[in-house]
Amino acid sequence: MKDDKDIKKQTASDDYGAGAIKVLEGLEAVRKRPAMYIGSTDINGLHHLVYEVVDNSVDEALAGHANHIIVKLHADGSCSVEDNGRGIPVDIHPTEKISAAEVVMTKLHAGGKFEKDAYKYSGGLHGVGISVVNALSEKLLLQIYRNGKVYEQLYKRGDPETRLKEVGTSEKRGTFVKFWPDSKIFEVTEFNFEVLYSRLRELAFLNKGLRIDIADERIGKELSFHFEGGIVSLVEFINSKKAPLFADVIKFYHDDGVYVTDLAFQYNDGYAEQVFSFVNNIRTSDGGTHEAGFKSALTKACNRYGQSVNMLKEGPLSSEDTREGLVAVISMKVPEPQFEGQTKGKLGNSDVKGIVDSCVYAFLDVFFEENPVIAKKIIQKGLLAQQARTAAKRARELTRRKSALESAVLPGKLADCSETDASKCELFIVEGDSAGGSAKQGRDRFTQAILPLRGKILNVEKTRLDKILANEEIKNLITAIGGGVVNTEFNAEKVRYHKIVIMTDADVDGAHIRILLLTFFYRYMLPLIDKGYLYIAQPPLYKVKVGRAEKYLKDDSELKGFLFEWASGSTELVVDAQSVAASSLKNMLDKVLTYEQELEKTCYQLELTILHCHELISFLHSINLELDNYALQHIVDRANEYFANKYKVSLKSEAQDDQEGQGSRAVVIFEGNKDSWEVSQSFFFAAETFKLIEHIKGLGSLNTQKWTLTVTGKELVKSGHGVLELGRAILALGKSLMTIQRYKGLGEMNPEQLWETTMDCTRRNFLQVSIEDAMKADQWFASLMGEDVEDRKDFIEKNAHFVRNLDI
């Protein structure tokens, strides 16, 4: 753990003992109604368990008692969280007559944060966190490092299996919690590394000086977050893919003894506004009084300065004008926050608005006077927004939601449905009149509407709002959907369809149109995504005909599975001159298919090509690498022997220091005559790697010996060596005996086929569009659709090796 020299020392007078723990109720209701405590039992509820444990550790950091948190996702499906705080008290509770630690773990609303002098600012779920995690875990291990001793206790589904006992001594201090989510409670028990690291990175930004490490043993990935700049670093991170108007982030900090206001903001040359607000480390996605106070102060300060230097010729700037291109983070510390809604999405404390407004305005008034160059750039940015707003006013009126009678202004475009209940209505946005014609004929006219788009819509990432609203295709889109446009003015209650489906072709043009539409919805109709209204259709990529039988297949993965299934009943396999029994062939080919699928997934996660990954797995299998063998140099030496005629293998250490994480990592370099590549040390110790080795073991001699594959009753034979070649042979033989049609355009399907494969609610496949990491999503849109060509080039080059079936 990190050196404790900068955090408060635990002393004999430390009043964080059993008496500081208050008890309100037991855990009886938690397992019966888990959604009441964690929101849901899906993947979001699962991750909420991690957040609750982490929030307790962050509360220790906020109180000055900790500065390091370690989160690990273990190969056995468990998650552990460790901090270097004071450790949960271990003495006997004065009223419960059991250890204070057991009280905290088994009683709802038991915790130090209910004492006003314990945690002044707390972000936990009303103090119920750790006990709820215990109740909803199949098993939980608690270890406490306190007063030079180590204490341990084991729980199962919330009940203690043992009493808290002393198990050793240690100079460490803090709390370690390891839990296994209960599969009887949760729909999913597999943690998502990307989602968790996004939240932990956010917490590290919000708590300047706090170090948070996250490691995923399943894929061997580790990241460390530590930002001395705090939210200033966060603004720099958000703006890293954009062009800032001025170099330094404007920062402001105010502590009046009750409320703490921490603000950082900067403008870029884009048109989107991004304000991220937090209260006690909790993201307030719907804003609230603290955000309103900041926006009010910014508008007043801009107008006062603009008037003083005679820049406002056309009248005062609106609040929206002053926020175009703004990236701001406001983090409040509020002793007793009042949140609106169960999700804590909006701060409701009425007095906060005036406090923030007053102190931020006073700061900006002085800042603008002392920094006139920056102030004038901000005002000029607002003036350009004002001009665009004026030009867009008439265009905006044309985009207002029209009544049913007015819908006739879209002849030949929108084919509306007859249902008036928006929750039952679906809008399919299709590419071109050809696909639109098939969709109109094949749809359910009662609930399904069709809107064909002509060509590609504007790239809104590079376009001002007035030009966006003047574009005919976008006007049709906005009018059809209803609800208006621009996130701050969007009225989701007026949306005419609760399923808006992007249905484009499976070629490069279709993909481009899809990303253009997603960019538009993300920048100007974000509430559609937040409410779960936006979907992407998954029409089949293939139609396979074998004799008279036809089958539609969604993608390459389904096609491969279909061909392997065919091979298991229509081919004969000989391996190393030994025939594989027909009864065993299906099992063997299933293993080959599973290995290839797992291999592809691992390659993507670890950024390796399939061939390189397979070579490494075969090598590690050959040397019988064990899970506890961590001698990396030994592996490199053995690799030089194994790949002697192909690669020169070496080891190097490289620095890793960016907004994604900090530290160093070891990299293994493979230098060959034809290609050179590298792989992180984490690959060799990842749980996924060892799973692949087990798959290879299960295939026996198939991966090392020659084989012959023959189609039963036909003179079609393929020979080769190893697993990957066998997979390619199956695909080649199968395709030679079948008629496989690859759809590039929806217009190639007749109305019946389109209904059967894509629009029939009983058989279709949709992807729901959601945002797990808003900051990352913003960077992707900026990289792919923005002005920075070099950044886009770097992105393409970095990810080029993941491309399959490039359509040129």
Q: Biggest β-sheet, characterized?
A: 9 strands, mixed
| Named CATH architecture of the largest domain | 2-Layer Sandwich
How much is the average pLDDT? 84
The domain tally reads 4
- Number of H/I helices: 25
Question: Over all CA atoms, what is the radius of gyration?
Answer: 30 Å
Unreliable parts: 113-118, 123-127, 399-408
The CATH superfamily of the largest domain is known as Histidine kinase-like ATPase, C-terminal domain
Report helical residue fraction: 25-40%
Briefly say what this structure is.
With 808 residues, this protein is an alpha+beta fold. It is built from 25 helices and 33 strands.
Task: Describe what this molecule looks like in 3D.
Helices cover 38% and strands 22% of the residues. The longest helix has 27 residues, at 372-398. Helix 7 (289-308) crosses helix 10 (372-398) and helix 11 (432-442) crosses helix 23. With 808 residues, it is an alpha+beta fold. It is globular and about 90 Å long. Mean pLDDT is 84; it is low at 113-118, 123-127 and 399-408. The strands form eight sheets. Strands 2, 3, 5, 6, 7, 8, 9, 10 and 11 form a nine-stranded mixed sheet that branches.
List keywords for this structure.
808 residues; alpha+beta; Heat Shock Protein 90; Ribosomal Protein S5, domain 2; Rossmann fold; 4 domains; nine-stranded mixed sheet; five-stranded mixed sheet; 25 helices; 33 strands; globular
List the helices and strands and how they pair.
Layout: E1 25-26, H1 35-38, H2 43-62, E2 68-73, E3 79-83, H3 100-106, E4 107-108, H4 129-135, E5 137-146, E6 149-156, E7 159-160, E8 165-169, E9 174-181, H5 193-206, E10 211-216, E11 221-226, H6 231-238, E12 250-255, E13 260-267, E14 274-279, E15 282-283, H7 289-308, H8 319-322, E16 326-333, E17 339-340, E18 346-347, H9 350-370, H10 372-398, E19 426-431, H11 432-442, E20 448-453, H12 465-470, H13 472-481, E21 499-503, H14 508-524, H15 526-530, E22 534-537, E23 542-546, E24 549-553, H16 556-570, E25 571-575, E26 578-579, H17 582-606, H18 610-622, H19 632-642, E27 647-658, E28 661-672, E29 676-680, H20 682-685, H21 687-698, E30 706-711, E31 717-721, H22 723-737, E32 739-742, H23 751-759, E33 766-768, H24 774-785, H25 789-799
Parallel strand pairs: 2-10, 14-16, 19-20, 19-21, 21-22
Antiparallel strand pairs: 1-4, 2-3, 3-9, 5-6, 5-9, 6-7, 6-8, 10-11, 12-13, 13-16, 14-15, 17-18, 22-33, 23-24, 23-32, 25-26, 25-30, 27-28, 28-29, 30-31
Helix pairs in contact: 2-4, 2-5, 7-9, 7-10, 9-10, 11-23, 16-17, 16-22, 17-21, 18-21
